[in-house]
């Protein structure tokens, strides 16, 4: 697995959650959310950082026209709200659970700073995460602004392949088992679910991909 949210094949939740550290274990707890519950809203105070123990979380904001813009959909082991570490005082985005049974590990900013001061490797991982996330977000926004929907989809599939893909030994195809629904993918590339379905079927007819609910296969002659 080559996902930028993993380091040395270690899930971030397992590595960074405070309940793994003796000094913080006693006062540490988890928050549970249902589908469509908000973890925080735009303009809320930025006083915590969050790790996903289970479920999925959507990060986004609303445009001046009231249109929802999805920046990211995050899964187990991923970090969000991390700009609070850098001194952000109010949220510039919302975070919403899009899964029933989402479990979140909230970490106070002061606790996070303390952990970072006490552990240089921990601190390095956090800053590396922030850098990668900013780079990935910048690329996604550039695609939304300047590329057509099909190009955005192909770029997203390439990103999925880097994060989750592996080579099929028998055929040499790229196989991508992934955690996203079609609705998730449509949100991330800035299109509607019906349009996404049309594009996926076009790619299938062109013998570029094969897809099912939880897996996408990119044929060898294309990958």
UniProtKB/TrEMBL annotation:
Q: Where is the HTH crp-type domain?
A: 147-222
Superkingdom to which the source organism belongs: Bacteria
Q: Which positions fall inside the Cyclic nucleotide-binding domain? A: 12-91
A Pfam short name: cNMP_binding
The family database entries (PROSITE patterns) matched by this protein are listed as:
CNMP_BINDING_3 (PS50042), HTH_CRP_2 (PS51063)
Q: InterPro entries this protein is in?
A: cNMP-bd_dom, cNMP-bd_dom_sf, Env_Response_Regulators, HTH_CRP, RmlC-like_jellyroll, WH-like_DNA-bd_sf, WH_DNA-bd_sf
**Gene3D superfamilies with a match to the protein in the record:** Jelly Rolls (2.60.120.10), Winged helix-like DNA-binding domain superfamily/Winged helix DNA-binding domain (1.10.10.10)
Which terms are listed as keywords in the entry?
DNA-binding, Transcription, Transcription regulation
Q: Does the keyword Cell wall biogenesis/degradation apply?
A: no
Alphabetical list of PANTHER family matching this protein: CRP FAMILY TRANSCRIPTIONAL REGULATORY PROTEIN, HTH-TYPE TRANSCRIPTIONAL REGULATOR ARCR
Name listed for the protein in its UniProt record: Crp/Fnr family transcriptional regulator
The organism named in the record is: Thalassobellus suaedae
């Amino acid at each position: 697995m080559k996902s930028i949210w993993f380091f040395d094949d270690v899930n971030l939740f397992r590595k960074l959650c405070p309940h793994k550290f003796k000094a913080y274990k006693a006062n540490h707890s988890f928050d549970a959310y249902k589908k469509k519950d908000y973890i925080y809203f735009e303009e809320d105070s930025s006083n915590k950082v969050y790790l996903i123990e289970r479920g999925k979380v959507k990060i986004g904001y609303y445009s001046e026209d009231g249109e929802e813009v999805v920046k990211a959909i995050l899964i187990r082991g991923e970090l969000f709200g991390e700009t609070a570490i850098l001194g952000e005082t109010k949220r510039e985005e919302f975070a919403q659970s899009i899964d029933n049974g989402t479990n979140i590990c909230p970490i106070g900013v002061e606790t996070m700073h303390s952990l970072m001061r006490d552990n240089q490797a921990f601190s390095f991982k956090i800053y590396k995460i922030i850098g990668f996330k900013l780079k990935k977000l910048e690329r996604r926004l550039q695609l939304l602004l300047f590329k057509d929907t099909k190009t955005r989809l192909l770029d997203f599939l390439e990103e999925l392949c880097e994060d989750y893909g592996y080579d099929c030994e028998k055929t040499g195809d790229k196989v991508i088992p992934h955690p996203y629904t079609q609705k998730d993918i449509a949100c991330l590339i800035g299109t509607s679910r019906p349009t996404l379905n049309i594009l996926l079927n076009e790619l299938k007819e062109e013998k570029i991909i094969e897809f099912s609910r939880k897996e996408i296969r990119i044929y060898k002659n294309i990958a």
